[in-house]
Task: inverse folding
């Protein structure tokens, strides 16, 4: 039962990274695409952003129901980066909707757009920072160490910073590739293909820097990756798909579904590779008292009800999502 | 401002802000499904125009509702981590169902708002119905979670920990049904009267305007039905609170001394220091009757509780009077509406009536905020009634007041933008919708 819940948590995390990432990435890409990109980007994410966004809420609910100590502890010590994630979420959703629904298009348009773009960088960055803090192992609940050690040091460091930039690059990349399939205009397609390649490079560079920063902070991340054969395979898979996608981006083909699937596989591979070395730890705590799936899980009665709710939920939501995408993303 | 006060204020602000958008999100899809159905049945342009004009506004309210809801899901932990550490596994079940309902709602909303030209007309209409149903359900689920805080069940509290957790018992606690009914009706009352009020006001400028006349009629029908049921539905939680949360009941009634029989206090300003109510109207025996159905019954007063277990009286009592007063006024308006609609339809177009409805615009939302103030402040000092105190649940991170300042600034900004956007939308109704172009 715990296994199934972890699986569902993992799936929702992956789906949020891909779909929510594409969503947030749209603002990142628009920053490079400028005014010309606005119409395509708006049209692409308008019907799906709210639905994509719910994956995050689902992950939060699973955490506080099934692994309450993790939720409570992260909320306590990572209060500041989580507040910043929230601010990004608030302003991105509202700026986007206000821009889309305001009846008149005048000077305020600039403000919406600026806010939309800015907030699209902030949330991915601080999500990356939060994840970094969970991995790094500087988190402590020892009040005697003082405010800085408890509430700032775990996330204000090089590793978390690089994780944040990596998240920005990754989300931007996912979005750019998805956007290639959102336009029938050939010139626009080539622009998005170019952004995809640029962002792919950024992602690879910062992905490598994540390992470098980890070494510099004393966390032997690369070693851990290399010790596990599954993680090596996943890392190789993700990397080898890069030239494949690059070549595909050069072609004039209209079958962009393959591009999206390839990117989906890459992201899933990276997350599986990381998850494998991380498992079963959720939060690395200073001093070694790590929070794992096992030592933080809620009692069986709770897990059982959670599982039921999740399964029924997925049975309703997955077909719903597929229908939503069919209505808006498939060529008529 | 100390950290506990900052956390309380931030939570209150976040909840108070979100509830407005949640009410709109629960009610408008039902209204829009109704107007779209009228269009499908009669083919009259005005119904299509109303549906589309309403959905333009609703899209904005939904987005703000979605993000402010996300804020709350984080704030549960950011502000009250000790509460969530213990409560999460107990009342997580309604939240999981709420999450599912949101998902369905968000998907259906995407289809409804953007699928006009891509779908069969009745399929599109069905998506609107789905938004309505899932919206109401998600409201019921989240209220069930709150009801657990008032009526904790499904666990044993031993040595500062919860054991023998039974999530089903927790969700279906003694208070959930009364709270769910009362809140669902409240959503329809508040949104219905607000929408009706706006259209009534616009109708005053030109009473030939078919668009506003029909929009007013649709919203007022829903509002009036809900407003008539609401005071009746209020009796159910009131009796439940009188029995199960006597301190809360005593506070909202400003009953300082246990009395047999007890008088109903109407209005009045509680004097917390001297423990009496000034400037009030007292109706002997009526509180006993309302609380327990018996004019002679004893009603427990605040004197039965040690000072540290009493909720604030001034805020709770005044909020309660505001809620009941507003509710009764809207119920009266509803009775008048049905009478006029039955016998004297021409009155519904009279200036004085339209001014009256326009005056009622904010009253439903004022009642909602007042009601939530009663139930939340009335539950203090408990965060889990009788089990955990709010002060023991708060985050120990110093500097919570900065969090509060930031969120306050953000919500003030968002409110201003939404009001401004609505004004612009209303100004352009004549431009975009053919049936609103009557001169």
Result:
């Amino acid at each position: 039962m715990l296994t199934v819940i972890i699986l569902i948590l993992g799936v929702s995390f992956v789906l949020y990274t891909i779909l929510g990432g594409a969503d947030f990435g749209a603002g990142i890409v628009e920053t490079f695409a400028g005014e010309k990109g606005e119409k395509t980007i708006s049209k692409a994410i308008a019907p799906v952003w709210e639905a994509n966004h719910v994956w995050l809420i689902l992950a939060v609910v699973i955490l506080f129901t099934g692994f309450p100590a993790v939720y409570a502890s992260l909320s306590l010590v990572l209060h500041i980066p989580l507040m910043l994630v929230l601010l990004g979420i608030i302003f991105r959703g509202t700026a986007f909707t206000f821009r889309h629904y305001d009846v008149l298009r005048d000077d305020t348009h600039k403000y919406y757009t600026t806010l939309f773009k800015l907030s699209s960088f902030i949330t991915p960055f601080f999500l990356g920072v939060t994840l970094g803090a969970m991995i790094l192992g500087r988190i402590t609940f020892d009040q005697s160490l003082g405010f800085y050690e408890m509430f700032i040091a775990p996330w204000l460091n090089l590793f978390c910073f690089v994780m944040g930039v990596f998240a920005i690059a990754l989300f931007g990349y996912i979005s750019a590739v998805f956007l290639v399939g959102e336009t029938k205009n050939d010139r626009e397609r080539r622009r998005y293909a170019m952004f995809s390649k640029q962002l792919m490079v950024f992602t690879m560079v910062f992905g490598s820097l994540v390992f470098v920063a980890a070494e510099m902070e004393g966390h032997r991340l690369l070693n851990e990756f290399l010790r596990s054969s599954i993680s090596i395979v996943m890392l190789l898979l993700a990397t080898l798909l890069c030239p494949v996608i690059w070549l595909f981006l050069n072609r004039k083909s209209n079958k962009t579904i393959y591009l999206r699937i390839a990117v989906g596989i890459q992201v899933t591979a990276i997350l599986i590779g990381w998850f494998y070395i991380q498992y079963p730890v959720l939060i690395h705590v200073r001093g070694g008292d790590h929070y794992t799936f096992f030592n933080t899980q809620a009692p069986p009665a709770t897990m059982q009800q959670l599982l039921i709710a999740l399964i029924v939920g997925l049975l309703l939501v997955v077909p719903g999502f597929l229908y939503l995408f069919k209505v808006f993303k498939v060529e008529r | 401002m100390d950290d506990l006060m900052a956390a309380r204020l931030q939570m209150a602000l976040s909840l108070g802000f979100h509830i407005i958008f949640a009410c709109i999100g629960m009610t408008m899809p039902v209204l829009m499904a109704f107007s779209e159905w009228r269009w499908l049945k009669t083919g009259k342009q005005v119904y299509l125009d109303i549906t589309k004009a309403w959905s333009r506004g609703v899209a904005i309210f939904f987005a703000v509702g979605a993000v402010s809801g996300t804020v709350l899901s984080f704030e549960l932990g950011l502000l009250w981590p000790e509460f969530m550490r213990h409560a999460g596994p107990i009342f997580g079940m309604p939240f999981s169902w709420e999450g599912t309902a949101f998902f369905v709602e968000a998907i259906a909303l995407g289809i409804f708002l953007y699928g006009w030209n891509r779908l069969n007309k009745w399929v599109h209409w069905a998506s609107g119905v789905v938004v309505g149903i899932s919206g109401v359900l998600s409201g019921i689920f989240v209220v069930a979670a709150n009801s657990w805080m008032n009526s904790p069940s499904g666990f044993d509290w031993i040595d500062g920990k919860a054991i023998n957790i039974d999530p089903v018992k927790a969700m279906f606690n003694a208070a959930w049904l009364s709270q769910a009914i009362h809140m669902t009706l409240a959503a329809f009352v508040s949104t219905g009267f607000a929408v009706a009020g706006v259209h009534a006001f616009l109708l005053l400028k030109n009473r030939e305007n078919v668009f506003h006349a029909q929009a007013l009629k649709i919203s007022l029908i829903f509002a009036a039905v809900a407003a008539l049921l609401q005071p009746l539905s209020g009796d159910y939680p009131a009796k439940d609170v009188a029995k199960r949360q006597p301190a809360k009941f005593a506070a909202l009634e400003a009953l300082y001394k246990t009395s047999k029989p007890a008088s109903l206090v109407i209005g009045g300003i509680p004097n917390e220091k001297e423990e009496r109510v000034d400037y009030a109207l007292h109706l002997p025996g009526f509180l006993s009757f309302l609380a327990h159905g018996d004019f002679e019954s004893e009603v427990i007063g605040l004197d039965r509780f040690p000072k540290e277990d009493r909720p604030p009286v001034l805020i709770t009592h005044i909020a309660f009077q505001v809620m009941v007063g507003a509710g009764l006024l809207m119920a009266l308006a509803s009775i008048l509406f049905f009478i006029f609609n039955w016998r004297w339809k021409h009155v519904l177009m009279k200036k004085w009536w339209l001014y009256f409805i326009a005056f009622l615009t904010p009253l439903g939302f004022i009642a909602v905020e007042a009601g939530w103030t009663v139930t939340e402040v009335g539950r203090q000092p408990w965060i889990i009634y009788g089990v955990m105190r709010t002060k023991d649940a708060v985050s120990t991170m110093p500097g919570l007041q900065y969090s509060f300042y930031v969120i306050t600034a953000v919500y003030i900004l968002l409110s201003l933008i939404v009001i401004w956007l609505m004004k612009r939308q209303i100004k352009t109704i004549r431009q975009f919708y053919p049936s609103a172009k009557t001169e």
